[in-house]
Structure formats: structure tokens, C-alpha cells
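Aim 2, interim progress. The first record below pairs a target sequence with its C-alpha cells.
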Amino acid sequence: MRHPLHFGLAALCGGLAASVSGAPLKLDRIPGAKPRNIVFILTDDHRFDTMGFMGHPFIETPNMDRLARDGAHFPNAFVTTSLCSPSRASIATGQYAHNHRVVDNYNPAPPGHLYVQQYLQRSGYNTAFIGKWHFGGDDDSPRPGFDHWVGFKGQGVYWPRKTGHKVKGRFVPQALNNGFNIDGRRVPQKGYITDELTDYALDWLNRRDDAGKPFFLYLSHKASHADFLPPNRFAYRYEKEAVPLPPSPATHPELFTNPPMWVRNQRNSRHGVEFAYYTDLDMAEYHRRYCETLLAVDESLGRILGWLEKHKLLESTLLVYMGDNGFLFGEHGLIDKRNAYEESIRVPLLLHCPEIIAKGATRPQVVANIDIAPTFLEAAGLRTPAQMDGASFLKIAQGETIPWRDYLLYEYLWERNYPQTPTMHALRGDRYKYVRYHGIWDVDELYDLQADPHERRNLIDAPDKQELVAKLNRRLFEILKQTGGDHVPLPPDRGTKFLHRRKGGSGAAPFPDQFERAPDKN
């Protein structure tokens, strides 16, 4: 793990020169380590509990279940910012958002970053990226460090249609389909995106330039990002399944103690259950479509496992499955992500490599997206570079006991586009979670996750917890200072601004055309 306080503007500028020269890309090797093939499968908005083996009431995920059965499951895996672009940047750089500075989904990544694939490529790996990059602006051009690139702009589309798709008689609009950028060449999208990305991944595995080299395949799915659209073979599969709406401070006030006012207010906003996305969204139907969309991801995982098995690489390859952030379906009266609640920040994380990881292992340590790059580097036999905030958990996956963090830092910076959710910092440990809000006059939060896993009893004002609150507040600022996070990046305005009041009036409005909107600046 990097030395505290070493990273700043000088290091960022130095990183730019370093990436050009290539010198710092040469990392120290771990003596005796064998570079392993690495397959990383990332999904979008896949929350931690939506897998069959996690006890979900109806979703069927036999291949995810297989990874848990034959590998290691990390039930306490988190993201350090619950938002697509910041989380993906943390995965690729090993850094908190306050260091890589990709703090929203709109602004491009600053120059000078060194990414995990660059280190792997420099050390002799064949590298390929297939799918959703989605940070660095609305740009699908090939990124440094990849020998092969298949990308698309922004969120992409599930189906290759320019206007939309009908689901249960309801017309669902889609963004314009720009197709794929394949190594700088524009190619149209032909079919359902999860299937097509898997086809591209298997095609690259079959025709790699140098089969004698280790390989790094990064397969990054659009699924299961909203608006959820399954392939036809899975459409309506769960139509008859019951999906009860979770309790919220509004519907079950007796279950909640001292919830923040911004949470109670947001239930009437774009990210609240009352006017979700400013529509009359049926939350039960929404969740069913989400699960149906994930079925294609599980099927894709099975195809990758089948290829590795056929080529006798399944035992020796490190395969990692992860979500880029979670998703709320009404918990606390909220939808989407961004906040620090478990459903927002906690993600599935499965590791499979039978040569070094025992079957059916459950590793309870708190790990995060900032730890992914260091873990890949250790699997490649390389030391973690100094600028990374995370640390490798490969030895934890193997069952070893190593020094580990006491608390993980979570951060979300207020977005002008989505002003309903405030800036927040949180600490997530084995038992307690502390959330501190910035820039609003509201109550902070403390939860005992062992006694209250659904985070309904805010203990921030409990007399017997005041010493703990003070301790955690001190620890929060220690981590912020040690990692260079005691400043707030301020990106320029981009994208659509979703306000919480009507033109010429006040209060919430359920219809999109009543809201003021800033022009897109992408």
C-alpha cells in the first residue's frame, strides 16, 4: 500500500511524463511468482445479494454459484464511490476518486494516469478490453495498455436499434446506437449486447497473437444498467414472481430511528420511490427485468468458463467476477446508487483459480475496487506501485492471514446534475459504518451492522456511542489526510441537470417536461 501523503499534483504531472517514457511501468517482480492468466468480468449495477447462492428468492445464476462453490466468495466487497465512472477508474488505477479525479460520469479522466493493463502489458501480457469503459468522457477510442480493444460510447444500448424497444407493451427509448470501436475501426452492433461482447471476448481468446504469453482479458458488460432489457429468451421469465417493496422511513417509520432529512426528502425526487426517474415506474416489474437481464450475464460467464475448461486453463487462470456498484430498489425509500448504504456500495466479488484458491472459501475481510489492480499485479508476479491506494488480497483469497485495513473509506462528491444527494464520506469496517455529510445541515449516521444489517437504527446520538463516533470521525480524517483526500475536486458542469422543482413554482413534479434542464455539454 502506498506511503501516506506521497501523492499530489507533482506526482500527477510526473505520472504523465512517466507514462510517456514507460520507465515506471516496469515493476519489481515477486521472486518465484508465476504470472497467471487473468480474466476479469465486470458487470454494471450488480448488487451483492442478487445471486442464487446468496439466497435471492428466484434468480437463477448457476455459473456464479459455481464460482462460489469452486472458488472464493468475498461477501464484504465494496466500491469506494458508488457511481459507474469513478468506480471503474478506481478498478483500473487502484486509487480513490479524490486521486484519480474521475468523480462523475461526464468529465474525462485527467492526463497522467497509469492503468493496471499498462503494467501487465509492459511485463509481457497479451491484453484485451471488451465492452464498457465509460470513463474518460464520451469517447470509445482505444485506451493505452491494450493490445486489442472493443469499446462503445457511454452506456451503449442493449439492442442495435436507434429508437427503442418494447417491453410488456411499454416503449423504452434507447440512446443512438453508435456501434463498436474495434481497434479504431467503427463496426455496427448486430445483436444483444451481452451476447455480442462475449462473442468478441471468445474470438480474441481463440486468435491471440502469441499463445505462449500470459493473457489479461477484461470483459466489461453493459448489463445490468438501467433501463434493464433482457434478451428475448429471458423476457418475462420472472413475470409472476412477487417482489415486495422494502420498508422505508415513510412507509414504516416505526422501523427507522433518526434517518437524515435528505433521505426522507429524496423519496420524492428522481432517485426516490415516489417519482423514480420522474416516471410512474413499477418497482416490482423493474426488479424482475433487472434479474432477467442478469441471466444473460450468468450465461456469458458460463461460456467463458467453458472455453477455459476446453483449453485446460480453468485450474490455473485467475477468474474474477465483480460488480461496479450496487443498486437500491426502494431500500430507505431510494433507488439507484451514490449513497453509502449497503445496497449501494456492496458488490459481488468471486475469485476462481483452483491451483491456489480452495473450493467453497468465504473470506469476510472488507475489500474494495481499489484492491483489484494490486491483486491482478500480484497474480502477475509484480509488486504494487507506490501511487495505488489499494492492496492485493490474493493471499487472503488463498487463506493466508496478512495485515489488513481496519476501515475502508467511501466518498461521494455532490453532482450538480443530481443535486438531491449530498457530498458524503463514510467508513465501513467489520462491524460499524460511520457516515459524515458535508455541505448540508443534517444528521450524520452510525450503524452497528451486526445488530442492524439493514441500517435502520441510526445510533449517531446514542449516549453510549459518543466515544465511538468521535473515534471514527478522527479515523476518517486520518485516512483522508493519509491518502490525499482532504481536498475536493471540482469538475466543470456537463450533462443534463435534474432539478427538484417545477419552472415558476416549488415542490416535486412527477412529469419530466415540467423540469428545468440544462443542455447537454458532452
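The second target in this work package is listed in the same format:
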Amino acid sequence: MSAQVGYYWHLRKLMAERGLFATTALVPLLAERGVRLSREQVYRLVTGVPERLSLVTLAALCDILGCAPTDLVEPYRGRPRRAADPGASAALADTAPSDTTAPATTAPRAVSSPVVMPLRPRRAEITAVPGPGTGS
């Protein structure tokens, strides 16, 4: 079985720590550094977990926030931890990083699909359809 590898995206948390609460505040700051993104693209970058990100954009974000790339992207190996599940930190202690509390605004991004318990199919039941004149 192959190991699941993913990452946590901490852009929203870092922005809040530096007093940047509006996603639109990043648009001119990125433009000053040569990164031209629309309001919508920046909103998705902040509120979601990007699958692809150019190194120029990553470098601009690090410059704006005064951080390192490892502050924005936290890789993990194993199953992602869940902030909403109080028992997750204990159950996943062997696979999650030492800090077991994920920010509520950051969803983990798994590179491979998560393991899902298989559903068991149920046999279809065929019933008679009442025809005309049967009284039903």
C-alpha cells in the first residue's frame, strides 16, 4: 500500500496574523511584485487549497507576508488531521505532524484519494406494477 502524501495551505491564517482580512487587499500587493491575478483568482487562492501554484506567486506571497514557503505549505504523510473531530489528534498521532490542530479555515489537500470504506450493494426488489382494471 502506498503512503498518502498531502499538504495544508496556511495562507488565510498568515494573512490574518498580519492584519490582512480582505482577500482583495492581496491584489495590489501581488501586482506590485509582477503577479497579475483577478479578484476571483485571489479569493480562490486564499479560501481554497490550490492544486497548482507558480513559484513566482509563491515567492510574491512569501515576500508580502514576510514568511518562508514552509510557513505557507505544510506537507504531511499519512491521513490528514481534522480540526472538527476532537478524537482525530489521538487517532492520527502517529501520522500527523506534531501540531495536531489544523486551522478551521484550511482544508487539507490530499494528493491521492482518501481511503473510503466500500459500500455493499443491495439487491434490487422488483414489485408488480398494478395494471388497469386490477382495482389498485
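Confidence is low (pLDDT under 50) at residues 84-105. This observation will shape the mutagenesis plan for the next reporting period.
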